């Protein structure tokens, strides 16, 4: 087995540290969401009258961004395109680990083309969302540094990923692909191999790790927080069922 180089040792420590911070951070944020006192009903009306209806409402927000569609359709288009392309790319990255075999399947080129298309859509939609924050005065007024940071970070990840296909030669990309699978398997089995040393790949990988590290401390946690949002997950039944949370102090007037 080839001895590990210094770059691999650095990225092994970096990767496991990021994974640990991410796991602990997400668990703590979920605990914070679940234990935050909510003494009164504050559902956004018109709201469903049953708990099952409220749950369906949350799913509507998760999968279709229904409230955003009603309030701002151009933003809904850009946001929806980003989320769909982003999650397709995540799924395709995982799927690639199982379909990249020797010899490659006959349809693998279409798989790669679909990934490139999703990457382009992701970068363009992020750029339009960034321009919205820069150009639209009322959105610019309420935008914080972290709002710009996450959009730029995601754009850089997409650009770095696309550069692997547009900048590298087919032979160089094949070398990266062949080194990547053993490295990722080693992370799971602790039988480590060297990480691909191509600078563009290392840039892409580093940016992804920084995103994962930042997620528990950012607004990206809305992918979990939406399920704990009282304005969405509460049924409009204060008369039929008295609302009471044991961890919230009783209010007195």
Describe the secondary-structure layout.
Blueprint: H1 6-35, H2 51-64, H3 66-71, H4 73-99, H5 108-135, H6 137-142, H7 145-166, H8 170-189, H9 199-214, H10 222-225, H11 230-233
Helix pairs in contact: 1-9, 4-5, 5-7, 7-9
The named CATH superfamily of the domain at 6-26 and 61-212: Transmembrane di-heme cytochromes, Chain C
**Major sheet details:** none
Radius of gyration: 22 Å
If you consult CATH, what is the topology of the domain at 6-26 and 61-212?
Fumarate Reductase Cytochrome B subunit
Low-confidence sequence ranges: none
**Strand percent estimate:** under 5%
Give the helices and strands as they follow along the chain.
HHHHHHHHHHH
**CATH architecture title of the domain at 6-26 and 61-212:** Up-down Bundle
Distance between the termini: 73 Å
Gross geometry: globular
The pLDDT mean sits at 92
Q: For this structure, what is the CATH class of the domain at 6-26 and 61-212?
A: Mainly Alpha
User: How many DSSP-defined strands?
Assistant: 0
Could you estimate the helical fraction of the residues in percent?
55-70%
| Tally of separate helices | 11
Please give a structural write-up.
The structure is a single chain. By secondary structure, this protein is an all-alpha fold. It has a domain of 173 residues: Transmembrane di-heme cytochromes, Chain C (Fumarate Reductase Cytochrome B subunit). The chain contains 11 helices and no strands. Helix 7 packs antiparallel against helix 9. The protein starts with 5 loop residues before the first helix and ends in a 20-residue tail after the last helix. The mean pLDDT is 92.
